[in-house]
Amino acid sequence: MSKAFQRTAAACAIALAGLTSGAGGAADRVFPVADHPLSDDLNPGAAKTWPGGVTSQADVRYAAISGWRRLTLDLYQPPRKGGPKPLILYVHGGGWMNSDSRHFGAIADLPALLARLAGEGFVVAAIEYRHAREAAFPAQGHDVRAALRFLKANAERFGIDPSRTGVIGGSAGAHLAGLLALSCGDTRLDPDGTKAPAGSECVQAFVGWYGVYDATALAAQRPTGRDGGIEALLGCTGACPADKLALVSPVTFLDRSDPPTLLIHGTEDKTVPVEQSRLLEDRMKAAGVPVSAIYIPGVDHSFMGKTPVETRAATLRAVNASFDFLHRQLDKPTTPGVR
């Protein structure tokens, strides 16, 4: 046996002895052990403080679906005074295949904007959901409902008034927000076997920016040259069948009990035609649903104008109108029994 080997063996023996005795040994490794496996989100992402006493918590898990990544949201909370606050759910766009909960159109710093909304007296949750290449629809509808139900179930923990909830989204996010808002009480957008309190998927206000609301009409309007977003969302090869197009369309679920709605759309939108918002506005009015709409002349998708000045003006108009609408609908407690 060589001297080098002997020295190595002796060093290993000393190291192993240190693992079982002395400082840092097994006797010092004492830590809590639960009586069952835990699934709670015990260590969410970074916390941050914003002006006005607003705090945010990143990457709070709202669902854990077997076989999928954890689904998370960013939560923005105003100071805890004056009782529970209304909840705003933000659903991001991106063609159901891109983007995330920290982006919205041409807004340069969405987290700062959401913190500003929280500073006006709302709890704001910006959610992630499964993209179309991860899971076909209705997985995205399941996720948005799961996020809302998680927040309502934890209303006391987060300082939320679950009877005052609104949802806002742009583009694909407006589509999913519209599905949530208009499908209250309809189980077709729940996974099989879902057991949830009645009305836990319902909201009291909806804001949609340049969204898809009738996939059937969209397919008929431009049968060729489509970007394939709806087909990818539905998992179709080629044209999608009528029943799938109907299920993915918020207008399918429309009835007179749907919440007050604000629609905003640029008249020159080349990605989602402005007719989508006009169609939903007309059908809501016919059904007796309170709806208002703003159509911004000369503005493309994401409120992009021909110049940065036009883009900024359109975006600020949409944001301010949306904030004001949410205040009007949600600042006062709702009448008991109103969904």
**Overall strand count:** 9
Order of helices and strands: HEEEEHEHHEHEHHHEHEH
- Poorly predicted regions: 14-21, 335-339
Counting structural domains, the number is 1
Mean pLDDT, to the nearest integer, reads: 88
Q: State the helicity in percent bands.
A: 25-40%
Number of helices: 10
Describe the overall structure:
- The chain has 339 residues and is α/β, with parallel strands linked by helices.
- It has a single domain, classed as Rossmann fold, CATH 3.40.50.
- Helices cover 33% and strands 17% of the residues.
- A 9-stranded mixed β-sheet has the order 1-2-3-5-4-6-7-8-9, sandwiched between helices.
- Helix 3 packs across helix 5 (172-182).
- The longest helix has 23 residues, at 308-330.
- Mean pLDDT is 88; it is low at 14-21 and 335-339.
- Pfam families: BD-FAE.
- GO terms for molecular function: hydrolase activity.
- This is Alpha/beta hydrolase.
- Residues 1-26 form the signal peptide.
Give a quick precis of the structure:
With 339 residues, this protein is an alpha/beta fold.
List keywords for this structure.
single chain, 339 residues, alpha/beta, Rossmann fold, 9 strands, 33% helix, disordered C terminus
Q: How do the helices and strands line up, and which of them pair or pack?
A:
Blueprint: H1 3-20, E1 47-49, E2 55-63, E3 71-77, E4 85-91, H2 110-119, E5 123-127, H3 139-153, H4 155-158, E6 160-170, H5 172-182, E7 205-209, H6 215-221, H7 229-234, H8 242-247, E8 261-266, H9 275-287, E9 291-296, H10 308-330
Parallel strand pairs: 4-5, 4-6, 6-7, 7-8, 8-9
Antiparallel strand pairs: 1-2, 2-3, 3-5
